[in-house]
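W.,

You were right to be curious about this one. When I first looked at the sequence I had no strong expectations either way, so I just let the prediction run and decided to look at it fresh. Below is the sequence, 158 residues in total, followed by the output.
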Amino acid sequence: CKRVLRPGAHLELCLLDLDLVNMGDRARRAVRGLKLRLRAKKSPDVDLKPLSDNMLKMLGRRGFEGLMRCVVTVPVVAPRQQVAEEKGGITDMVSRVGKWWYERCYECSGDEEQNVGGGSIWDDTQLLRECEARETGLKLLVAYAQKPARPKRRTISL
């Protein structure tokens, strides 16, 4: 993307990580199982480190400037009290979209509509209860960086 951007132009990112925030034991096992299935199904070369960390390091190494970032936690489950008060409330809608996005990014296998290795991790009601109790969320990185106006010189003066 560095070749496409004009000098001084901005690159905007919105990345959803595979790992969750405030995971309990059941969620940790589910995510670990998903990582193992991804590695077995796709290839052993798939990097399972947090995508947001890798991308920020790469942008820094590539010379992008003015890197600004914000990590947002998207709720996995809307609290029951809130759902009862406002049917189809904003928190409920955001959690549904977040889970759908997570499934499309990590559980679906390429062009197929089937999930990697079976059903979704969100089909487990005990996992959803744990996520509600621990206020587990999806880790969403929103960031932007600026392409340097002047590229760094690669020659050495003697």
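Here's what jumped out at me. Strands lie at 10-21, 65-75, 137-146. And, maybe more interesting for your project: The chain has a mean pLDDT of 82.

Coffee later to discuss?

I.
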